[in-house]
Amino acid sequence: MANSNQSAFQFELQQLKKFAAEIQKQKEGLEAVPPYRGEDLAEQALEASRERSRRNLDVSEKEPYFGRLDFRESGDEEPVPLYIGKAGVSESESGHAMIMDWRAPAASLFYSYSGGEEEAWYMAPEGMVEGEIYLKRNVAVRNGTLQRVVDTYSKGSSQSGAADEFLLYRLGEKKDNRLKDIVSTIQAEQNEMIRAPRDTALIIQGAAGSGKTTVALHRLAYLIYEYRENMLAEHMIIFAPNTMFLDYISNVLPELGVGHIKQTTFAEWAAARLGGVLTFKPRNWEKWFVPGPFRSAQETDAPWKLKGSISFMQAIEEALIHYTEDLLPSADFSPWQGKVLKNETIRNWFNDEFTGYAPVKKKELTAEKIKRWIKTELDKEWDKKARQDNKKSAAQKLRAYLKTWRSLEEADVYAEMLKVSEVRAVLTDEVADAALAMLKKREADHEDLAPLVHIRIVLNGLQRGERFHHIVIDEAQDFSPYEMAVLQKLALKNSFTILGDLAQGIYAGIRSWEEIFPIFKEGRYEYKILSKSYRSTMEIIEFANSILLSAFVPPAPAVPVFRSGEPAEAVHVPASEKEPYILKWVEKERSKKTESLAIICRTESDAEKLWTGLKSQIGSLSLVRDGQRGYSGGVTIIPVYLAKGLEFDAVLIVDADAENYQLNQADAKLLYVGCTRALHTLAAVYSGTPSPLLKKEEGKGK
Ligand SMILES: Nc1ncnc2c1ncn2[C@@H]1O[C@H](COP(=O)(O)OP(=O)(O)OP(=O)(O)O)[C@@H](O)[C@H]1O
């Protein structure tokens, strides 16, 4: 076996040399062509294509491929080796594909084929292609050097089945401060989601570390490749929970050769869309996450739940119909003494003639029509002076008349909606009045953003090109159904990837995916589950799962891949020993060449206090605060809610005591989020009484 491994390595070494020489030749060929900067459109298109090739070749030079698949198509005599890489490369002389792009139809087999005697097939544009696989090989190349060759399937060989070995090798690597692409180890269930048809909203419930974010980013790269004619990066958008998370994921798309996809948070996007009509009060997260009675109220019918509901949206939609049908005053319009345009006529124009247009446009068109009527009436006047006087009067009167129409400004309309009894019935008078009081001061809360954007869309309609070709909503459990429904109005062909984990729902979001199914029409969404967790070791996942079980948090717990590490433990440390313990822990982890360490606190003020005490004792210790745009890796102190979505080689949860993490679902989710950030090492320390959410058997540090 050792020999066959060696010969495979030697063979791939020779292959790599051949590929590298061809890539080098093509690079030199392209470099010899001076970049075109002129005005000729055909030349510009050629230059753009050359630029793409240059970029692809740069990627291919360092890592030309990561896999090889020997496939014999039914009817052919011999299998053909297909090398699969991040970018496709064709032979310059023959034009034949030399390296296949991982997104190409045939490359799908590399991810979906799990060995055995099963039939191998893939869908090509011309239809189904069947055949047989002879070899599936992982080939790790770093910076042009061959590092590892692992056969995960070889026809007729007992050696097959090493698929997990390569995955485990990858998962065991240390991580810095950025998420990475996973093209070489995409798993079959992830592959299915990445390649799901574009016209269906894909809703994924995925356990912590199951690769949701990663799958979403790879899906974008796939859609851009597969539907290159009509799905453009510039018309795609990613919604993520905060700006630091956006920074954390910012490397993956460029690594996959994709640029220009807008990445934002819902609040940032909505506020920009509303263009400064109101001042938005950001939610006070410190208050939100401080342990105590305020937290226990979060699961109930708090204002954010009511304002985020679909019933509220439906009540607004209904009330808007009545409001916009009745925009006109009941009086006739008189442009000058003795001349009258009947109210009924104007209503007919508005309601019948311009039906199908959005209210703002309808008002504009009706005003134009009135102007044309005025002109006709003016032309009937022969006396020049009288005509001039009438013209002046008409202009003033029309301006005044249009002001008597009901307002079409979002904030005014929202205020009107909040006075409608059916809307108030959904919200309660107290919540509606509180929102009205804020609007009076030209202020609004975070949860008013969705209704305001909704109202704007209804009033203005959507212009051509305003819809997104694809929308990704990450950490979707923290979105309200209303926010999601607003985005649904903006997605072309229902093209969505919605990902989240209900067990990590720590903000005021949804509690069950069923809450959002009605947003999508029957048959226009697909619900999938990812339960395997790739991030953490078995010990960490078991430790984290037991927290959820203690508080009966659904859904089903994460299933770890078979990667074992150090025990994850809860350790009692007297308060006076806390800082020395942390210092020792950091030292120990650093000695393992760990790249990213997180010390996770309950709140931002706890984090700040700890950082102040430790910063002179730990070199390059950083503190993450709310609103921060990025984090630099190394040793970080971070409040638990800001750690969501991120990952670290080693995690230390501090103050994991009964007061900070109480026996309720909200606290269990928070602690679960903290623990599942760890890849390789996890410990939770407490002074006094341990959190009842922690596993009963305690660690050694007592
Ligand atoms: N197929 C895979 N091969 C290698 N690594 C993988 C694979 N799938 C996921 N991972 C790794 O697992 C980790 C978790 O991925 P990701 O952050 O996308 O998960 P998530 O489900 O969004 O997590 P969470 O909800 O906990 O934030 C990342 O380090 C990612 O690279």
Could you describe the 3D structure shown?
The chain is an alpha/beta fold. It has 4 domains: 1-173, no CATH class; 192-289 and 461-533, Rossmann fold, CATH 3.40.50.300; 328-405, no CATH class; 538-686, Rossmann fold (3-Layer(aba) Sandwich). Helix content is 41%, strand content 19%. Strands 1, 2, 3, 4, 5, 6 and 7 form a 7-stranded mixed sheet that branches. Strand 12 and strand 13 (339-341) form a beta hairpin. The chain binds adenosine-5'-triphosphate. Adenosine-5'-triphosphate (ATP) binds next to helix 4 and helix 6.
Number of helices: 25
Helix percent reads 40-55%
Segments where pLDDT lies below 50 for 5+ residues?
698-702
How many structural domains in the coordinates? 4
Radius of gyration, rounded? Answer: 31 Å
- Helix- and strand-based class? alpha/beta
Task: Compose a concise summary of this entry.
The protein has 702 residues and is of the alpha/beta class.
SSE order and pairing:
Layout: H1 2-31, H2 41-62, E1 67-73, E2 80-85, E3 89-90, E4 97-101, H3 108-112, E5 120-124, E6 127-142, E7 145-154, H4 163-171, H5 188-194, E8 201-206, H6 212-226, E9 236-239, H7 243-248, H8 252-255, E10 262-264, H9 266-274, E11 279-281, H10 285-289, H11 293-296, H12 303-307, H13 310-325, E12 333-336, E13 339-341, H14 343-353, H15 359-379, H16 384-403, H17 410-417, H18 421-427, H19 429-440, E14 443-445, H20 449-460, E15 470-473, H21 481-488, E16 496-500, E17 525-530, E18 532-533, H22 538-550, E19 559-560, E20 569-572, H23 578-591, E21 596-601, H24 604-614, E22 621-623, E23 634-639, E24 648-653, H25 665-675, E25 678-686
Parallel strand pairs: 2-4, 8-16, 8-17, 9-10, 9-15, 11-14, 15-16, 18-19, 20-25, 21-23, 21-24, 22-23, 24-25
Antiparallel strand pairs: 1-2, 1-6, 3-4, 5-6, 6-7, 12-13
Helix pairs in contact: 1-2, 5-6, 9-20, 13-18, 13-20, 14-15, 15-16, 17-20, 18-19, 22-25
The structure holds adenosine-5'-triphosphate.
Adenosine-5'-triphosphate binds at residues 167, 170-171, 179-180, 182, 185-187, 190, 206, 208-214, 501, 504, 534-535, 645, 647, 676.
InterPro entries: DNA_helicase_UvrD/REP, P-loop_NTPase, UvrD-like_ATP-bd, UvrD-like_helicase_C
Keywords: ATP-binding, Helicase, Hydrolase, Nucleotide-binding
GO cellular component, one term: cytosol
